[in-house]
Amino acid sequence: MSEASNQTLTLHSPAKLNLFLHIVGRRADGYHLLQSVFQLIDWCDIVSLKRIPENDIRRINPIPGVNPENDLVVRAAKLLKDFCQIDFGVEISLRKVIPMGAGLGGGSSDAASTLIGLNALWNLKLDQKALCELGLQLGADVPFFIFGKNAFVEGIGEKIKEINLGSHDFLVIFPRQGVETKRIFQDPELTRDHGQITIDGFLASPWTDLSNDCQAVAMRLCPEVKQALDWIGQAVPGSEPRMSGSGSSVFTVLDPKIDVAKLENLLQNLPKGWMGRVVRGLNKNPAYNLISSD
């Protein structure tokens, strides 16, 4: 969903789940080669943009502890401004709802929404390909959110193919203890030679026999990951919970027959500091229609 005028634009920035994450190799420069399926979900941050005549990027309500040079929405605005040599500016407000450090892609989604929104607000007319190339400079997941549809993802995140996942609800738990991505990918026990699969292979059995190669390392570094997996296992018997991305959020797909109201009640009694939600999968980024794919 987006709301707009000639001078302002408000965008809902969705989180995503990695339905699986396989590490299939490593490049000479140290970047890991991955295979994954990214599922958009209706757990959203809200990015508000206001065009201003001054040649400035203003960040309202900055996130405590995050320096402006590390703030992805500021970096996205500056990148686009410099690339297009714009001599006016923007006032940016971000309401964080997606938890930080959860492996749900919130920061990347916010950056993508900033690029998409400013492309429209500044009337730049860059197409999807150009925005994705810019987004990749900000993070490997940013192009996916600009692409705007659920996807089978390969390489370091830049090879994106649309995939139809249907409509599903998910239970997502964030145990509040983050796992540093760098530590996981540098861990000597990380599996880096997972056999590759195809889109057809995934679609033949999308909810079973899949794994996250980062999960074992994350559970060792952050015991709360296993605790959250065990919590889902007890709350949803017979489910196959797994970690999303490099963690520490975990999730499971929900059977359509499940008593969601009962599950919502269970979520009221999560361990102190944990966050949990029943979320709905999305087929498109709410900002999808703002961008041309030509």
Total number of distinct structural domains: 1
Low-confidence stretches: none
- CATH fold call: Ribosomal Protein S5, domain 2
Q: Biggest sheet, open or closed, and with what strands and sense?
A: 7 strands, mixed
What can you see in these coordinates?
This protein has helices spanning 72-84, 106-121, 128-136, 142-147, 181-186, 199-204, 215-221, 223-235, 260-267; strands at 2-4, 8-26, 32-52, 57-60, 89-95, 151-155, 159-162, 169-174, 242-243, 250-253, 275-280. It has 294 residues and is of the alpha+beta class. The protein has a single domain (1-294), classed as Ribosomal Protein S5, domain 2 (2-Layer Sandwich). Strand 4, helix 1 (72-84) and strand 5 form a beta-alpha-beta unit. The model has no long low-confidence stretch (mean pLDDT 93).
Keywords:
9 helices; 294 residues; 28% strand; Ribosomal Protein S5, domain 2; single chain; alpha+beta
Summarize the structure.
By secondary structure, this protein is of the alpha+beta class. Helix content is 29%, strand content 28%. The mean pLDDT is 93.
Write the layout of secondary structure elements.
Layout lengths: L1 E3 L3 E19 L5 E21 L4 E4 L11 H13 L4 E7 L10 H16 L6 H9 L5 H6 L3 E5 L3 E4 L6 E6 L6 H6 L12 H6 L10 H7 L1 H13 L6 E2 L6 E4 L6 H8 L7 E6 L14
Parallel strand pairs: 4-5
Antiparallel strand pairs: 1-2, 2-3, 3-5, 3-6, 6-7, 8-10, 8-11, 9-10
Helix pairs in contact: 1-2, 7-8
